[in-house]
Amino acid sequence: MRNLLSQEDKKIARKEHRLRVTTVSLLFSFFTILIAIVFLMPSYFISESKKYAAIKYSEVIKKSIMEKEENASNDILFVIKEKLNLLALDKEDSSLKNIFEIIISDKPDGVMINGLSYNKLSNNQAVVIVGKANKRENLLMFKKLLEQETLFTEIFLPVSDFVSDSDIEFTIKISGNF
User: Fold this and answer.
1) How far apart are CA 128 and CA 10, in angstroms?
2) Is residue 53 pLDDT above 80, yes or no?
3) What is the DSSP letter of 116?
4) Of 88, 105, 140, which residue sits at a domain end?
5) CA–CA separation, 73 vs 69, rounded Å?
6) What range defines the domain where residue 16 resides?
7) Rounded to whole angstroms, how far apart are CA atoms 160 and 164?
């Protein structure tokens, strides 16, 4: 078959063909990217709103944790302050240490003290002694020795503590102006 176009016309036709193919490819790519962006916009907005909500939620949680920590530390400080106020005694009063020493020194053989506690209620102050005596006589002697002390105004030992003859678990409440 014969060539109807000259060499120059062929070059121009090829050049135009390449230009058209390139233009169509670029337009196709542009519209594909444009459509992709349009379809991805809702997902982007949803993810941004979820991100914002997650940030707000984490801030609320951090604030809540900080408030709880402050409340816990305030509670601890309040409890410690109460304990210090309980242990603080006026200079005119006998010290709590001396009262406990008196109680321990009055303890006869055969009486074991398991615990001493101090309660201070307005004008009424009390010491509670919890322990164990091997004989009823030792417990009675301990009560009489405590009654001889001038600091103690009232010594209460329940009669039910005298029921058994040996291995007696007892609780003595001592009131006074300490």
Assistant:
1) 118
2) yes
3) E
4) 88
5) 6
6) 1-88
7) 9
Span 89-97, mean pLDDT?
Answer: 58
Confidence of residue 68 (pLDDT cuts 50, 70, 90): confident
Same domain, residue pair 1 and 72: yes
| Contact indicator for 149, 135 with CB cutoff of 8 Å | no
The average pLDDT across 117-135 equals 85
* Burial (CB count <10 Å: 0-12, 13-18, 19+), residue 163: exposed
Asked if residue 102 and residue 76 are part of one domain, the reply reads no
Candidates 141, 116, 127; CA nearest to 94 is 127
User: What's the gap between Cα 145 and its chain centre?
Assistant: 46
The pLDDT of residue 92 = 42
Q: Which pLDDT value is given to residue 90?
A: 52
112 and 77 belong to one structural domain: no
Of 146, 156, 140, the residue nearest 100 (C-alpha): 146
3-state secondary structure of 89: coil
* Residue 79 and residue 23 share a domain: yes
